[in-house]
Specification:
Number of helices: 4
Strand content: 5-15%
Structural class: mainly alpha
Order of helices and strands: HHEEHH
Strand order of the largest sheet: 1-2
């Protein structure tokens, strides 16, 4: 059994001739490929531009930040609160010192999320030293207790054996 389908009969009414069908398909393929290539090229251009900008900003920051930091660290400025009230003149250095000093307060709290970084670090250091002390203490106590227990047991057994002999 052989089945023959004449595409000219099926598609001829819509496109006219096979040449028109071929041109329509060619046009759709070219349009689709062009759109996809344009998207790919655009995304690659965007990535390259982003990399270049990132690199240039990083290079600029690395070269200029020390100079800028030295320039602004001791430059006076006026503190203004969120309502626009002026709170006095200070420098970035003084503000950093003030903030660090305020944060360097040990505040024991019930929850770890309530603790500031200073408190968390102090607790961590104390826990490390406590654990080390605990291990050392337990090792020494175990050593002493075991040796005393063996000495006591040895003496007790000697007395028991001497009393039976």
């Amino acid at each position: 059994m052989e089945i023959k389908i004449d595409l000219n009969d099926l598609l001829g009414e819509e496109f006219g001739s096979m040449e028109n069908l071929a041109k329509s398909i060619e046009h759709q393929v070219i349009t689709t490929l062009t759109k996809e290539l344009a998207k790919g090229i655009k995304s690659r251009i965007d990535e390259t531009i982003a990399e270049i900008i990132h690199s240039k900003v990083k290079d600029f920051a690395e070269s200029k930040m020390p100079e800028l930091f030295e320039e602004i660290i001791d430059k006076p400025y006026e503190i203004v609160d969120s309502y626009g009230s002026k709170k006095g003149i200070t420098t970035m250095r003084n503000q950093l010192i003030k903030t660090l000093t305020e944060q360097m307060v040990y505040k024991p709290c019930s929850y770890n999320s309530e603790k500031n970084y200073f408190t968390k670090n102090i607790d961590k250091i104390v826990a490390e030293y406590t654990d080390a002390f605990k291990k050392d203490f337990n090792a020494k106590v175990n050593k002493d207790i075991v040796s005393e227990a063996f000495a006591y047991a040895y003496d007790k057994l000697q007395r028991v054996f001497r009393s039976h002999i």
